[in-house]
Design brief:
About 70% of the residues lie in helices and about 0% in strands. It is mostly helical. It has one domain: Orthogonal Bundle (ABC transporter involved in vitamin B12 uptake, BtuC). The N terminus is likely disordered.
Length: about 375
């Protein structure tokens, strides 16, 4: 029929708008997590509104706090993109922690080797080394999935443990600074450090307080653009998404799923490896143990909350960066709100963003179908 009725936006009546899944459901999950967190705070005798105010102020209330929030968000952007790229190929890469660890090793070796080199060369080689080491650590799980049918979840978990053990051996027996017992390397030469954002913006007349925010943040945003173009505007991206949605259809269309799986894991590992660029060359300026701090696992929640899209991942990374920075402020301002309780609040957000992400989907979609049909 030529005059078929259409709902708002040209949709047939009774269909659910796309923004419900992309924006409304993550907002509902976040609201539920914050509500439950408020009940926890009230249960220990503190005001939830006062705690939320301190949390927001600690994350965005002054320039130094914003710098710390964006610094944390940088790591979450990298790991969120890593999870998202693999997810579009139908893979659940939870090896971001190990891939980030190896990426830091690559960046650290650049910092140790390039004494006397100017920082642009160190930055470019650091990007290449962190990406290369992270991709190399993701290659074997991808190859085993593509060629042997080994489950990617199992192999990436195992490689997280192997990466931690390898790094412990290197820092204790090989790369440790002579004459000390702390498992750390010697400090890198200052010319190999990634420039801090306050130092880069000072010549432009923008005065920022000192913070860990460095050149890795604009690189993370650039990676978002690169991933968007690759996944949604290239032939390889089309093959990636087809393979992830229906491998049989991909084979019928002449796509080689094994090749897509391996290349997707290589790209995913490279993105996770950039965490090492931010932490080792940008902030720590030396190699040390446990610099990742669990960001590989938080990246899973970031990708899920961001619906595996670069724009959503940036917003979700900002949220988790605010929780990390604002949570530190909470533990300082309230004696009863310990660091462990802050971790509980962060865990509730991860729980609702990940395991319970479909909690409100059925009711929300049913409501919009009724409204659209009416």
């Amino acid at each position: 029929m030529v005059g078929e009725a259409r709902g708002s936006g040209g949709r047939p009546p009774g269909t659910v708008p796309g923004w419900v899944g992309r924006a409304l459901l993550p907002a509902l999950n976040l609201a539920a997590a914050l509500l439950l967190s408020g009940l926890v705070v009230a249960g220990i005798g503190e005001s939830p509104l006062a705690a939320l105010k301190v949390l927001a102020y600690g994350a965005f209330g002054y320039p130094e706090a914003v710098g710390f929030t964006l610094y944390y968000a940088t790591n979450f952007i990298f790991t969120g993109l890593a999870v998202a790229v693999a997810f579009h190929a139908g893979l659940f890469n939870i090896g971001g922690e190990g891939q980030a660890t190896l990426g830091g090793l690559g960046a650290g070796l650049v910092g140790l080797a390039l004494t006397g080199w100017p920082w642009p060369a160190a930055a470019l080689l650091g990007i290449a080394a962190s990406a290369g080491f992270g991709a190399a650590w993701a290659f074997l799980p991808g190859w085993l999935q593509a060629k042997r049918g080994s489950h990617i979840v199992i192999t990436t978990i195992m490689f997280n443990v192997i990466a931690a053990s390898l790094m412990t051996w290197l820092m204790v027996d090989v790369l440790i600074k002579p004459g000390q017992q702390s498992p750390e390397s010697r400090d890198f030469a200052p010319e190999t450090w990634l420039p801090a954002m306050d130092a880069m913006l000072a010549p432009l007349g923008l005065a920022l307080p000192s913070s860990p925010l460095n050149l890795s943040f604009p690189w993370a945003l650039a990676c978002c653009g690169i991933v968007y173009v690759l996944v949604w505007h290239t032939r390889w991206g089309f093959e990636l998404r087809v393979t992830g949605q229906n491998e049989r259809a991909a084979v019928y269309a002449g796509i080689r799923p094994a090749r897509i799986v391996v290349t997707a894991m290589l790209l995913s590992g490279a993105l996770a490896g950039f965490v090492g660029l931010n932490e080792i060359l940008g902030v720590q300026h030396r190699l040390l143990l446990n610099f990742t701090g669990g960001v590989g696992f938080v990246g899973i929640a970031v990708a899920l909350m961001g619906r595996n899209h670069p724009v959503g991942i940036v917003l979700a990374a900002l949220l988790f960066g605010a929780l990390y920075q604002g949570g530190t402020e909470l533990s300082f301002e309230f004696q009863t709100i310990t660091r462990e309780l802050v971790v509980v609040i962060q865990g509730l957000v991860i729980l609702f963003a990940g395991a319970l992400e479909h909690l409100f989907r059925r009711r929300a979609e049913a409501l919009f179908r009724r409204v659209g049909a009416a």
